[in-house]
Specification:
The chain has about 280 residues and is of the alpha+beta class. It has helices at about 25-30, 40-55, 105-110, 135-150, 175-190, 195-200, 200-210, 230-240, 245-255, 270-280; strands at about 5-10, 15-25, 65-70, 75-85, 85-95, 110-120, 125-130, 150-160, 165-170, 215, 220, 225, 255-260, 265-270. The chain starts with 5 loop residues before the first strand and ends in a 5-residue tail after the last helix.
């Protein structure tokens, strides 16, 4: 059976208003299965995965977009990443989660959110916003308003098995009719319920919400879990640690063992590997 994990863009004809829809099932379950997540953390991870796909869909180049939240609360770190070709990964790090915690504020406490855009060619960019709202969607809307100056609305939902999201944006340079359209579609999107977004296909969702508008829906792109770790990238991380530190570990342990936090792939490097990394040849 083909995966139902899909991303689709749409536009409102003859306007500066655009949108995107995503629903994740297989990729969300595979990512969430990498650790034993409490329900509230798993669902927030699902929302973040959906948001990463939606936000990466706004990029005009090849690269990745990552979303990271960190704070002083029981949820220490939340990170998700999506590439331009819709490959997705994510994780969360947490301490004991209070039974009654059910909002981003209660999980993160005082914290911040960073959105990092890494093009395959060109400079890396990062925007940071404080966590000032109780939902991930509202925090990300703040990011677009402050860092991108693009009016943006997000609806994000997740349960134990699926996550989904809807993004609306009004691009600069619109006319007065665009103002009316923007207010109208935002009001309609705010009525969207979790069971609708999680359970219905994109055409049905958009028809229910915007049947009085002229909407063009583009072809769907598949979304899948794939980790971008590799032995070469892990060697790059060791190079950043530094020659002395690497040889100190080799002297103490005989080898350097590293595990990917996203997919649990294991990499082992012996003295010969470290010699080749720093000296360019093997020493015997």
């Amino acid at each position: 059976m083909a995966s139902q994990d899909q991303f689709q863009r749409f536009i409102f004809e003859d306007s500066q208003v655009r949108g995107a829809w995503v629903r994740l099932a297989d990729s969300y379950r595979e990512i969430a299965s990498q650790a034993s997540y409490p329900t509230v953390v798993r669902q927030l991870l699902g929302e973040s995965l959906a948001a990463s796909v939606l936000m990466s869909g706004t990029l005009k180049f090849e690269g990745t977009l990552s979303l990271q939240a960190s704070g002083q609360g029981p949820l220490r770190t939340l990170m998700t990443e999506c590439s331009h070709d819709r490959y997705l990964r994510g994780l969360a790090r947490f301490d004991e989660i209070p039974a009654d915690a059910d909002s981003l504020g209660e999980l993160l406490g005082e914290g911040k959110m960073a959105i990092t855009i890494t093009p395959e060619q060109g400079q890396r960019y990062q925007g940071v916003v404080p966590r000032e709202h109780e939902s991930l969607a509202r925090c990300l809307e703040d990011y677009f308003e402050r860092s991108e100056q693009i009016a943006t609305s997000l609806v994000l939902f997740a349960d134990q098995d699926q996550s989904a999201g809807l993004l609306l944006q009004r691009l600069p340079g619109g006319t007065e009719p665009d103002d009316d359209l923007w207010r109208r579609v935002n009001h309609l999107a705010s009525t969207l319920k979790a069971d609708e977004l999680l359970g219905l296909d994109s055409e049905t969702v958009l028809h229910r919400l915007f049947h009085e508008e002229t909407v063009r829906l583009f072809d769907a792109d598949p979304v899948a879990f794939r980790c971008s770790c590799s032995r070469e990238r892990t060697l790059g991380a060791l190079e950043a640690i530094g020659q002395k530190e690497c040889y100190d570990i080799i002297e103490e342990r005989g080898a350097i063992d590293m595990d990917c936090q996203f997919c649990h792939a294991h990499y082992r490097f012996d003295r010969n590997d470290i010699d080749q990394l720093f000296l360019g040849h093997s020493l015997h």
